[in-house]
UniProtKB/TrEMBL annotation:
<keyword id="KW-0472">Membrane</keyword>
<feature type="compositionally biased region" description="Polar residues">
    <location>
        <begin position="101"/>
        <end position="116"/>
    </location>
</feature>
<feature type="region of interest" description="Disordered">
    <location>
        <begin position="97"/>
        <end position="116"/>
    </location>
</feature>
<feature type="transmembrane region" description="Helical">
    <location>
        <begin position="52"/>
        <end position="73"/>
    </location>
</feature>
<protein>
    <recommendedName>
        <fullName>Lipopolysaccharide assembly protein A domain-containing protein</fullName>
    </recommendedName>
</protein>
<feature type="domain" description="Lipopolysaccharide assembly protein A">
    <location>
        <begin position="35"/>
        <end position="93"/>
    </location>
</feature>
<dbReference type="InterPro" id="IPR010445">
    <property type="entry name" value="LapA_dom"/>
</dbReference>
<dbReference type="Pfam" id="PF06305">
    <property type="entry name" value="LapA_dom"/>
</dbReference>
<dbReference type="GO" id="GO:0005886">
    <property type="term" value="C:plasma membrane"/>
</dbReference>
<keyword id="KW-1133">Transmembrane helix</keyword>
<keyword id="KW-1003">Cell membrane</keyword>
<keyword id="KW-0812">Transmembrane</keyword>
Length: 116
């Protein structure tokens, strides 16, 4: 399985390299963002397209990481709550167990009531 992961990572890196190599002219062009709010307008400095694409990639990785971390934290909280509930139930069983051992089982109690 580890070999498959390594091969897939190398394949993705190779395809990424080919993409950059074949589109070098397009990726070095500059782009500018404009925002017109009819009251005030904003304009960014010119940036290369490869910088914008890299920023978008890392922003997506960061967002996905935060979303995954949120799910992990919720799962840990649920596990913590379930462990607490399990400990409470175990303690309840331990307190009930000695009481049930002192009373006769149901079948013996039924035999006793019939003999009386």
């Amino acid at each position: 399985m580890r070999l498959v992961k390594v091969v897939l990572v190398l394949l993705v890196l190779f395809i990424g390299f080919l993409l950059v190599r074949q589109n070098h002219d397009v990726l070095t062009q500059t782009a500018q963002f404009k925002l017109n709010l009819y009251i005030i307008s904003f304009q960014s400095a010119p940036h290369s397209l490869w910088v914008l694409l890299t920023f978008a990639l890392f922003l997506g990785i960061f967002g996905t990481g935060l979303y995954t971390l949120l799910g992990l934290l919720k799962q840990r909280q649920a596990n913590r709550q379930l462990r607490h509930d399990l400990e409470v139930l175990k303690s309840e069983i331990q307190t009930i167990k000695p009481k049930t051992e002192s009373t006769p089982p149901i079948s013996q109690a039924a035999d006793l009531s019939q003999s009386i």
